[in-house]
Amino acid sequence: MNEHNDENRTERRGGTEIATDGGSDRDVVELPHQIELPRLLDFYELQTEETTKISEFYDNLADGQLTTTRCTECDELHFPPRIVCPECHSDDLEYVDLPHEGELFAFSTVRAGAPMGMEDEVPFVLGIVDLGDVRLSAHVDNAEYEDLEIGDAVEMKIVEIDGPVDHERVFYRFEPQE
Ligand SMILES: [Zn+2]
Question: Of 1, 11, 54, 125, which shows the fewest CB atoms inside 10 Å?
């Protein structure tokens, strides 16, 4: 008996149903032609008061100011902003302004595997930026990896996110200082 004589058969390999047509040595894996992407694949979180408890952070950013929370009990500064202090568990936090100019602590280039909405931007630079008393990661626009050095001066820029939600969204990025 020769198993390769089967005209049509279904094999099970590693838990995946694979249909073969007998006319080719290649397996055919069927995927839906259209899927509804879950919102979780969207890199940017929802920013309204109804959808996040740090909506004030986004409101401030939309107004042109990068902010974060400081605990009024123990004075701890956090980034990203919190709703409860990770140090002393107080929820008595206030929003404070962050400087918009900082310096590169580290950086790398993303060449593949970018999140949804960033696929067309590769390669792009991701930086870790020291900004006053906080350290955060973000896109570094208008920069080539080869031209950057640790310690380079960068400044914050605000971008608008055009996506599948019915409210305006913003986010922060950096770019080299002139
Ligand atoms: Zn605290």
Answer: 1
